[in-house]
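ASSEMBLY PREDICTION REQUEST
Request ID: AP-0331
Submitted by: J.K., bench scientist
Number of chains: two
Total residues: 417
Priority: normal
Notes: Please return the full assembly, not individual chains.
Input sequences:
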Amino acid sequence: MATEEIQPKPKPGNIIPGVELRKSLAGVDRCRTFFDDLKLIDYLHSVNEFYLDGKGEIVGPVSTFGAGIPDNSENNTQGIGLKNSWGGLEVFMKWSTENNELERRIHLLMYYETEYDYYQLYLTGQTTHQNTLRNLPSVGKSFHRVFRINPPSITQDEIDGILLNFTNELQQAGVI
Amino acid sequence: MNCNKQELFNMDQKEKKLALFHVDTDLAVRKPQLVVKSIAEFNEQVYNYFETEKFLLDVNNRFFNNKGTIEKSPYYGINIEEGSLEGKEKKSRFDRFFSVNGNLTETTLKVSLLVKSTDLLSETSKPFDFLSLIVLHSIDTVENLFVISVKGEIVFIKSRDYRGGGNFSGDKSFYLVNMGEGCTLCFPLANPPHSDSVFPALTQNVAEILRGFEAQGYIKIPEKATTDSADMSDTRPTKVS
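STATUS: Completed
Returned structure:
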C-alpha cells in the first residue's frame, strides 16, 4: 500500500466538490420534497402505534448518497461522486425483543438517479437473530420490494396502496 | 466524523489466516485510484477464500441447468454525509457543497448468477425478465463486521429512453422492478468465518429462497436439486473459463 503525505485539509469537507456531488445533493432534495409532501414517515409512526405498541424506534430521515467506484479500469480522476451518482433519503424503524436477541427493522429508502432521471423506492423488512455468545454469527433474513416511481404522476392513493401491500407482506413474513 | 484509519483484512491463502493492512480514508477519498487496486485485489482473495465460484457453479448446475452466467462486480462504498458547518459562518448555498464528508464504510465484492426467464419458463411461470442470485462479501468498517449475504431477486425490466423529454408523460406512475429475499450472516471482524462453516448455510438459504420463488409461481426447481441434501463435496461443477 503506497504511503503518501496527506496535506492538511483546508476546508471542512473531504469530498472534492464537483458536478456529480451537486447532482447527488439535488437528488436528496427531490426525495425530501416527495417524502414531506406525502408524509411518508407517518406510515412508520402508524405501524409503530398499531402493530408494535409504540416500541419501535424511528431513525431518520437521513440523507444518503454516494457512488461506489466500480473497478480499477475506470479513470477515476474526480474522487468521489462519479458517474451515476444518486441522492436520496432513508428512514427506518427498529425494535428488539427484551433480551436483544431478535431485532426487526423496516426500511424505506428512496433515491433519485440524475443521469437516467428516475426515482426508486426500496422497501425492506428484516429480522436478525443476534447471538449473545461471542464469536457466533448473527443471522438475518430479509425481503425487499423495489419500485420505480414517477412523481408527479404517481398519486397518494398509489403510494398508499404500495405501502399497504407491503404491510401485508411484513405480516406474512412475521416482521410485524 | 470517524477516525481516518480504517483497517481491512488481507487474506493469507496458504495459512488461512488474516493479516491486517491499513487504508487511509483520506487517501481513499482523494486518490481513489491508489486504493481501488488494493481493494480489488483483496476482494479477489475473498472470492477465492470463500470458494464462491464453486458455490455458484454448483447452484447453476443444480437449479438452473447451467443456463446462468456469473458476473463479478467489486466496489467499495463511501458513506457520504452532509457535513456540519460548525465554526463556519453560513455564507451561501455553496456552503453545502464544501462541507460534505465521506468515510470509507465498506468494501464489497458482489457476485451475481443471472438467469434469463426465457431459459427457465415453464407453463406455470408468472412472467418476469430475469432471476439473479447475488452473493455479497462485505467488510463493514463501521460496525466492524464481516458480512456474507445471499439474495435472490426476481427482476422486471421496463426499458426507458435515456432521459427523453424530461417529463413523465407516457410513463406509468409506478411499477415493480425487483422483488426478492435474502439471508445475511454477520461475523465480528475479530473472528472471521471459514468457508467450511459458510458454505452449508449459504446453500440452505439459496434453496429456501428459490423454493419461495417456486411457491409464488415464478420458477420450477428441477428434481435433481431436491433429491439430495446440501453436500457440496459430491458435486463436480464444470469450470467456466
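REVIEWER COMMENTS: Chain B touches chain A through 69 residues (CB under 8 Å).
SIGN-OFF: pending second reviewer
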